[in-house]
Amino acid sequence: MNPQAIIDGLIAGSTIGLGAIGLTLTYSILRFANFTHGDFLAWGAYLTLTVAGILGGLAAGLGAPVYPFSFGWGLPLAMFGGVALTVALTLGLDRILFGKLRARGADAIIIVMASFGASMALRSLLEFIFTAKPAYFTKALQIAKPLGLGMRATPDQLLVIGLTAALVVALHLLVTRSATGRAMRAVSENPSLAGVYGVNVDNVIRVTWIIGAGLACIAGVMAGLLVQIRPYMGFDLLLPLFSAAILGGIGSIPGAMLGGLIIGLAEAFAVQIVGAEWRAAISFVILVLVLMLRPQGLFGQKGA
Amino acid sequence: MTALAVAGLHAGYDPDLPIVKGVSFEVTRGEAVCILGPNGAGKSTMIKAIAGLVPCFGGQVRLGQTDVTGLAPHVLVRGGMGFVPQTENIFTRLTILENLQIAAQLLPKPERADRIGAMLDMFPDLAARPGELAGALSGGQRQMLAAARALLTEPQVLMLDEPSAGLSPKLVGQVFDTLRRISEAGVTLVLVEQNVRAALTLTSRALVLVDGKLAHDGTTDALHDGKLLGELFLGHRATEIAT
Predict the structure, then answer these.
(1) I need a labelling partner for A105 at 20 to 30 A (CA). Which of A134, A258, B72, B210 fits?
(2) pLDDT grade, residue B48 (50/70/90)?
(3) ipTM above 0.95?
(4) Residue at A301 is within a domain
């Protein structure tokens, strides 16, 4: 077996894990499976691409690659804009759709179906605006460098793994050590009681959307940087995202990340063992096994 | 001085089927009042409506001089109302200290550590293991943590929904001893309770709710022999206090 599968799995797992963190936060605090989350990844990538294009038009030098990476300063700068716009998109969607349903006391299944419909609308809108033709942050070619033990990776790929690790640690500290994180955990356990404790639940919901959208955008940019940008890129990631979130345990940030890495590695090894055509089935198999054998996931709590 | 005033309150989960029907009463500052009544009388619904957890369809709730009708729970807490729900009144997946830290966020930063320290002094059982998950506490200790959390912000009015529910007689004694100390410290107490005997020893005034309406408002002395309560609970007394 080729050890390159480890690097390939870690890279794919980084994107899946970051996406799954947003999904697991939304699931545990807003209490519904948000099907639009995959589309937030795609929208994040396209919005960043748009901002990068505007920045490139304003200052051509921003597009020039910065050694050893394949992109220039324009991309990280544009990602800030992309994150802000993705956050605005999610908050807007919550205001006009999910928030109204919550206020009416709608059942979770109604909100899930609404998210399913919104997901299709967002995807179609993306295709309408940007067309289905793949887009790229950069067309510069990178040569993968040897890492030892028969593994190779490009600088962009290593950056993705490093950035993911830094974001997960930062987010874990936020949730476990800060007042905001305590409030998020409180709302996750019992929103009514959180209000009685003096927590502004609406603010916590907003923070959850902001974090989820921000991570979705970054995950979308990572996927777009390493592969390509397509309107369906988020939809294609939806099953791995749900599998990772459920495998890690709903509400657990380290769990979602670990779940993402496990899914990524499982997919990469499956490609070598049973063939690339079975890659997509791996997430489904893992999802079913977790739901049957350990529904609370690796780090989740029973009944959560 | 009035700490809490409720006037013509209609509340429940469906506007067409209100559970609380036109209840009015006032609680003066420092007073300890219990709300009694048979199962299904609307006691818990009423106290939850006052605390902002159940919709109010009519009437008014005033905290001091401020109209707080229908405000969100977190706004009411900031305004000086403390509420301890009957069950699920602490965050079991958070530590004891984290439970107190969440409530302390409402206080100015320099005061937070001192107030948490004061609560841990008041409840030594909690002080012994602040880093332990609250889910590991016994029923009585959970009620103490819930009370400590509510008292931490020094509320004008502290409302408790059946603090004795599910506790052994020994723990009920402990919880009511704690509530007595809180009351003696000058905190206004409003207590919904099924344990009539315990409630009457703690409070000086009782409201009896029957079928969502106020059927009695008076001193607890009149209720100690149980005769009047029996009439009220079993429906032999038709008199209702006009609201």
Answers:
(1) B210
(2) very high
(3) no
(4) no
In-domain check, residue B41: yes
Question: Which of A197, A201, A301 shows the shortest C-beta gap to B103?
Answer: A197
Q: What is the CATH number of the domain that holds B11?
A: 3.40.50.300
- Rounded to the nearest 10°, the torsion over CA A179, A184, A188, A193 is 50
pLDDT at position B242 is 43
Residue A299: inside a domain: no
From A183's Cα to the closest Cα of chain B, the distance in A is 7
Please state the rounded mean pLDDT for residues B94-119: 95
Containing structural domain, residue A23: 4-293
Q: Tell me whether residue B243 is in a domain.
A: no
- Check A193 against B77: CB less than 8 A apart: no
Residue with tokens 């038009």: A57
Who among A190, A195, A301 is closest to B72 (CB)? A195
Percent of chain A with pLDDT over 70: 99
Residue A41 has pLDDT above 90, yes or no: yes
**Residue B239 forms part of a structural domain:** no
Is there a contact between A195 and B98 if contact means CB atoms under 8 Å apart? no
- The tens digit of pLDDT for each residue in A220-270 reads 999 999 999 999 999 999 999 999 999 999 888 889 999 999 999 999 999
CA-nearest residue of chain B to A201?
A: B74
Tell me, yes or no, whether A303 lies in a domain. Answer: no
Token duo for residue B100: 């107190």
Count: domains in chain B: 1
Q: How many domains in chain A?
A: 1
Is B227 exposed, middle or buried (CB count within 10 Å of its CB: 0-12, 13-18, 19+)? exposed
Range of the domain at B87: 2-234
Rg (CA), chain B: 18
Closest to A119 measured CA to CA, from A101, A102, A98, A104: A98
Gap between the Cα atoms of A106 and A189, Å rounded: 19
Distance from CA of A212 to the nearest CA of B (A): 22
Whether residue B196 contacts residue B229, with contact meaning beta carbons closer than 8 Å, is answered with yes
- Do the Cβ atoms of B85 and A196 come within 8 Å? yes
Q: What pLDDT does A112 receive?
A: 95
pLDDT classification of B23: cutoffs 50, 70, 90: very high
Q: Which of B91, B151, B157, B160 best probes binding to A when mutated, by most A CB atoms within 10 angstroms?
A: B91
Domain membership of residue B203 (yes or no) is yes
